Amino acid sequence: MGDSSGSVSIDIETISLSGKEHIIHTSCGSVSVAVLGDQDKPALVTYPDLALNHMSCFQGLFFCPEASSLLLHNFCIYHICPPGHQVGNHLGAAAISSDIPVPSVDDLADQVADIVDYFGLDAVMCMGVTAGAYILTLFATKYRERVIGLILVSPLCKAPSWTEWLYNKFMSNLLYFYGMCGLMKDCLLQRYFSKEVRGSDVVPESEIVQACRSLLDERQSTNVSRFLQAINGQVCRRHDITDGLKKLQCRTLIFVGEDSPFHSEAIHMTTELDRRYSALVEVQACGSMVTEEQPHAMLIPMEYFLMGYGLYRPCCLSGSPRSPLSPSCISPELLTPESMGLKLKPIKTRVPLQV
């Protein structure tokens, strides 16, 4: 493990499918990082959306056998949790003191850099969901040489619109006065999932929504409010990073559910990226959190994306009925940047035209 001045790690003796947790003290406060896999492998850094941690945001993807084998065969996973969002009630999961300033989005991006330095990582692959995708994209624009690729799910790149700001302000007030109440959970679930899985008066919620609703009970409302203020507050809200997108030096693969509240934002981001090195995959009948609602829809596009780096899934699983791919059976023209996303049901993929 590398070292970084001002950084100290406390290892929690909890090793499971969720990884081994490290509490790292950075220049912007303490943060939990769950490490899963062989640290001699290349690094994949993840960052979840608002009010989530790696277990509630990436569990569906990593519990999908084909996707898990693809990612764990090629990477060591570093799951970063927003401050105060880690799993369980041990060190750091309590409410963060009001005396500690609310971090800005730039602080959170710099915190990612501190974590990368602490573990002695040169350059990393990044995977983020919505607010987490924004933090990792901002990290990539500030530290371009530290990022080799971005896998973004329903990402944000612009400053909040007035509509989003007012809605998030409403959620901030809910958190302040009522905590993680039922209405607050409903607001968050609308952010994450499509209407189909959220259910209705006659159709019950799906199991993934029920599980997420239960996991939200573990969140400290003050900690969620701090993260919400970082991306939506009057003083330190997120800023527009559109101008920095074309300067990125890495390939980018974007997933977005067609029913996501941030669908138009993902489309905008795709038009601003260098179209030679980016691709958009739109997943039908899906909300923002594709990693949980339709994780299998991510598999084949990720396989093609990672093949551009010379990475692949183990041959022992190449006969999977969901993804019968192996490097030897893929046409060379499909490995071009313009074909990193595939037109495959239930995925509708937008492939940029050659310029």
How is this structure best summarized?
This is Pollen-specific protein SF21-like protein. This protein is an alpha/beta fold.
Write up this protein:
There is one protein chain. With 355 residues, this protein is of the alpha/beta class. The protein has one domain: Rossmann fold (3-Layer(aba) Sandwich). 35% of the residues lie in helices and 17% in strands. The chain is built from 14 helices and 10 strands. A 10-stranded mixed beta sheet has the order 1-2-3-5-4-6-7-8-9-10, sandwiched between helices. The N terminus and C terminus are likely disordered.
Secondary-structure blueprint:
Elements: E1 9-11, E2 20-26, E3 29-36, E4 43-47, H1 54-57, H2 59-62, H3 65-74, E5 76-81, H4 105-118, E6 124-129, H5 131-142, E7 147-153, H6 162-178, H7 182-192, H8 195-198, H9 207-216, H10 221-232, H11 242-245, E8 251-257, H12 263-272, E9 278-283, H13 290-293, H14 299-307, E10 347-350
Parallel strand pairs: 4-5, 4-6, 6-7, 7-8, 8-9
Antiparallel strand pairs: 1-2, 2-3, 3-5, 9-10
Helix pairs in contact: 4-5, 6-10
Strand element count: 10
> From the alpha-carbon coordinates, what is the Rg to the nearest angstrom?
19 Å
What is the CATH T-level topology?
A: Rossmann fold
Mean pLDDT: 84
Q: Return residue spans where pLDDT drops below 50 for at least 5 consecutive residues.
A: 1-16, 317-347, 351-355
Helix content: 25-40%
Q: What would CATH call the homologous superfamily?
A: Alpha/Beta hydrolase fold, catalytic domain
What is the H/E order? Answer: EEEEHHHEHEHEHHHHHHEHEHHE
Arrangement of strands in the largest sheet? 1-2-3-5-4-6-7-8-9-10
The CATH first-level class comes to Alpha Beta
- Strand content bin: 15-25%
Major sheet size, sense and barrel closure: 10 strands, mixed
